[in-house]
């Protein structure tokens, strides 16, 4: 089988050569590519030299991401018409461990090839399939901050998989809250609009709100509070959202003032400072994890007066 020629034609996005090779009957479409990639996966993962070479081997200017997406989509159509298995996972005995178990639709979602993604889904790609690390195409798109792919997948992923726990027990929404940034916030908005459970918990019993607060993601925190996220959730090890704000103050927030702002916001949405963390209430956690200046600032600006009655400030 002339797999080397087919692989080369796919990696250079040479549609004419691909068609000729397939018509010759010399090439297999399912698992005979480099490292046993299926040609669909090889098409998605191939890297085109956009500076030196154009499509079909012609010298050309640089190609945009959208142009590459469009050409890859054309090739996928050809491969699918010729019987390529749409849900075939990447398999390798010895290399590229990270990609094991990922399907073409997962890779398209992660790389932001929206045209390819749509074609694969419309052609029957299974969005309930998970990778070796239990991630879905939706989770991959969120992790890569591919906003348009997230929007599309949030609308097309079966409802039963919107809250699927992937690697580390995190849902797509939790992955979106882990880091701050405009793209992450847009991903969150698309997920929430699709009906994800904002109060789902990870393997440690933490909600998306708890994760956002723990990582100093105040924009995500505000959005989740507006979407009725539970402000008084308690993790498996007894951590409240308020406690997480203080325990992570030293590395998640730039200043004491920002921590006070977070605590004030949580109080505005009904956070209960009397919930204990291993028999220690919020004030005791504050004393344990921050210095006196922080405690005084919190007492003066955040704590309800009745909580700190009798404490010298």
Percent range for β-strand residues? under 5%
CATH topology of the domain at 1-96 and 111-125: Serine Threonine Protein Phosphatase 5, Tetratricopeptide repeat
Q: Count of DSSP E strands?
A: 0
How many H/I helices? 17
- Rounded mean pLDDT is 83
The CATH architecture term of the domain at 1-96 and 111-125 is: Alpha Horseshoe
Main sheet summary: none
* End-to-end separation: 81 Å
The secondary structure category is mainly alpha
Can you give the helix content as a percent range?
40-55%
CATH class of the domain at 1-96 and 111-125: Mainly Alpha
Organism: Elysia marginata
InterPro entries: Ankyrin_rpt (IPR002110), Ankyrin_rpt-contain_sf (IPR036770)
Pfam family, one: Ank_2
ANK repeats: 100-132, 168-203, 204-236
TL;DR of this structure?
The chain is mainly α.
Describe what you observe in this structure.
With 313 residues, the chain is mainly α. Among the domains are: 1-96 and 111-125, Serine Threonine Protein Phosphatase 5, Tetratricopeptide repeat; 232-313. Helix content is 49%, strand content 0%. It is built from 17 helices and no strands. Helix 7 (137-143) packs antiparallel against helix 8 (147-156). The longest helix has 17 residues, at 65-81. It is elongated and about 80 Å long. 40% of the residues are buried. This is Ankyrin repeat-containing protein. It comes from Elysia marginata. Keywords: ANK repeat, Repeat. ANK repeats lie at residues 100-132, 168-203, 204-236. InterPro entries: Ankyrin_rpt, Ankyrin_rpt-contain_sf.
